[in-house]
Structure prediction request, 477 residues.
Amino acid sequence: MKSYSIKELLSSNLSLQEVTVKGWVKTFRSNRFIALNDGSTINNIQCVVNFENFDEALLKKVSTGAALEISGTLVESQGRGQSVEIQVNKLEVLGVSDPDTYPIQPKKHSLEFLREKAHLRVRTNTFAAVMRVRSVLSFAVHRYFQNNGFYNVHTPIITGSDAEGAGEMFRVSTLNQKKPPLNEAGEIDFKQDFFGKETNLTVSGQLEAETYAMALGKVYTFGPTFRAENSNTSRHLAEFWMIEPEVAFNDLDANMDLAEDFIKDVINYILENCAEDLKFLEQRLLDEEKSKPQAERSDMDLIEKLKFVSENNFKRVSYTEAIDILKSCTPNKKKKFKYIIDEWGADLQSEHERFLVEKHFKCPVILFDYPAKIKAFYMRLNDDGKTVRAMDILFPGIGEIVGGSQREERLDVLLDKIKELGIDEEELWWYLDLRKFGTAVHSGFGLGFERLVLFATGMGNIRDVIPFPRTPQNAEF
Ligand code: ATP
Ligand code: MG
Ligand code: MG
Ligand code: MG
Prediction:
């Protein structure tokens, strides 16, 4: 007898055949109906037990969460909303699940409660749907780049430079903590450590990816990155996955085109391949919104929102234009901001970004040409001498989803900048080599994978779109 996944069974035409399935009990009603799920789909298969044919002690062991192997006849279902069901002939309980202590009950649990059960929460419909969408999105990322002539580069996780200079790095220590070697000044002597220098977990694979773009042309990294973000927001994790393409000979306009095309492609891919999970997640949001006042409800449903993004152009706006818009807000509107922006050169806060996207333009926005002072050292200086070829993509409900730029390809300009910022030139000798040997215009961006999953699933907190979130004071699992 062949084993089938529940997804296969529900979409098959195997009526009247004998089948075997394995999965976990979602619910067991009236000592007769087992809703079984094996993770392959959001839908359960109904298994109908004729209890007179089964030992009472055996049926007692069938409870929510238990693992079962069921064999029976697949028949057309009389029940609503399901095509087929199984008339059970044989039932084996592979693993019991004590109903008194099993934390995941059929009732609705709060997301906060489930965060404390990160090892079990994927057994709920919501998390199973989110994690399936996450997996398909991850495939879509590789699919897009591989189909478009990019090579995947595995940039290092352990790095020897703090190139971003943001001071948010996790130090890698291989020192004997009890007795670290000290130098004459009494400080830890990293020269005696495993790597012979201080090392950190990567905050971005960009600089290393640039080196590969300058030989392979079009490359991307998609790996974990680490930032000791000392704040608790619903958009930041200490460990997150970043997608970073880097392309030789691309200027900022080509970079914006790439980012927009990429996002639309992967969103389309999940619309085509995750229809059932997205429908479920959309319904979840609708149920949640019922309790909100009309004004706070979103004007588009999840799938409509995804289609809107995949079918419409993103609005491209220079930083200077954005500041003019924010400056010209009525005093009343301005009062709603925590920080009032009245000057060119100020860094936008997420409240301003979201205002531009959600209230002003009502579509994804690409902001470009930022003041050099608020951006990283490696960005291409414009001829005005005060702005750089940077871009951020801002999304409704999310804020910043992409940060990217054209990179400074001119050695002298880059060196001036490095000096101005007091960055250690020697640390970056290998990066500067790229500007000495065959330098060329190039650009790239970083897209936080979890922010993309947030948008795609309509979830509200980044902790709920990664299997085991890492945030301050939280690394339980
Ligand atoms: P933010 O302004 O939201 O803190 P950032 O400007 O510090 O982001 P970048 O250095 O531009 O971030 O990184 C590129 C992308 O990585 C961001 O656009 C975002 O999508 C994502 N990202 C950055 N920090 C985090 C984080 N702590 N957790 C999850 N995603 C992140
Ligand atoms: Mg940040
Ligand atoms: Mg930012
Ligand atoms: Mg950024």
